[in-house]
Specification:
With 316 residues, the chain is an alpha+beta fold. Helices cover 20% and strands 22% of the residues. It contains seven helices and 14 strands. The chain has helices at 43-53, 59-67, 91-107, 132-135, 242-245, 266-271, 298-309; strands at residues 85-88, 113-116, 118-121, 149-152, 157-160, 175-182, 198-203, 207-211, 214-219, 226-231, 234-236, 239-241, 253-257, 280-285. The strands form four sheets. Strands 8-7-6-5-11 form a five-stranded antiparallel β-sheet, with no helix packed on it. Strands 12-1-13-14 form a four-stranded parallel β-sheet. The radius of gyration is 22 Å and the shape is globular. The relative contact order is 0.21.
């Protein structure tokens, strides 16, 4: 009931290239977990989420959402930036909000540094004189989730975009605040455009850690080789897309449930990141986007019903 993969098949769907082969998914049996752990104790919220995920929202559920509309008083309290993250449907909305926040800090006198990734084409064909910029994908989802440029400063709120140390809790999706910047060779400031520092970040719930640049590899445009990118594995996150928030848990958030919702399951995933209704405020609400099975992944609903009907996989 989460978000379907972008431009890809879901795990229970058989690829066209394998139509004549064994359907591996059908060999698995169903074990369904029914106890809600994240929202335990908030029965009204659990009831709303259970209705939304299967397309059975009622008037009482919409009344709850309407009562959570953001007001002027909220902007000065617990739901002010940067106390509460904004969860938006699109990258464009996220980028605009994060840019506004950076501009605000710049106007307040914050010292802001622009960090540029170091990209190298590992298997360049000597006969290929294509400019490097034309070989690097523009979509961050095609560069391992690691950005080409990043503006940082002490006090910036960031999200980790890579599993750095799983056993220590430094995993994709954890958020925190930059508390110190360590420049190369013990310098006190950025000297060169290609400088990539280490960062000291105070992460939510897992404490202070030092983060170093990492190297990721991804295909160049039109498969013209492999690019290795060296960069800090973070993005700014006063606002974040629903897709990037999958797997995250937050205590407070301002969520956009307006006309920009475009993906199956998007509203459900956004709302279910929260522990309780107390931590929810809604910036924009389009109830038509939440009625019937419009907000649901109907293919997943059908597959869930099939598995419930036939919970045991056939013996080989």
């Amino acid at each position: 009931m989460q978000l379907p993969p972008v431009r890809g098949l879901q795990v229970f769907q058989k690829p066209n290239s394998q139509l004549l082969s064994l359907h591996l998914w059908r060999l698995f049996g169903l074990v369904e977990l029914t106890q809600n752990m994240r929202q335990q104790g908030d029965t009204s919220f659990v009831d709303l989420l259970n209705a939304l995920r299967v397309g059975k929202m009622e008037a009482k559920h919409f009344d709850i959402l309407i009562s959570k509309k953001l007001n002027v008083a909220d902007l000065e309290g617990d739901f002010a930036l940067p106390k509460a993250i904004r969860i938006y449907p699109t990258n464009k909305m996220v980028d605009e909000l994060n840019h506004l926040v950076v501009t605000h800090y710049r106007n307040q006198g914050a010292q802001i540094f622009k960090i540029k990734a170091q990209d190298e084409l590992l298997d360049r064909d000597p006969r290929n004189n294509t400019n490097m910029d034309k070989l690097v994908p523009k979509d961050i989802n095609k560069t391992g989730g690691i950005p080409h440029e990043l503006e940082i400063f002490v006090g910036a709120r960031v999200m980790l975009r890579y599993n750095v140390l799983v056993e220590g809790g430094l995993v994709n999706g954890v958020m925190g605040v930059i508390t110190h910047i360590f420049w190369p060779n013990y310098r006190r400031d950025q000297m060169y455009d290609n400088d990539i520092p280490d960062l000291q970040i105070e992460f939510d719930r897992i404490g202070i850690h030092r983060l170093t640049p990492i190297a990721v590899k991804f295909p160049a445009v039109k498969n013209k080789g492999t690019i290795e990118r060296r960069m800090l594995p973070i993005v700014l996150c006063w606002a974040c897309t629903v897709h990037k928030m999958q797997g995250c848990t937050v205590d407070k958030a301002v969520i956009n449930l307006g006309s920009n919702l475009f993906a199956d399951g998007q509203a459900y995933v956004a709302l279910s990141r929260l522990r309780s209704l107390d931590g929810l405020r809604i910036e924009d609400l389009d109830c038509l986007k939440l009625t019937g099975t419009t907000p649901c992944n109907e293919d997943a609903l059908e597959e869930m019903e099939r598995m419930r009907k036939y919970p045991l996989a056939p013996r080989p």
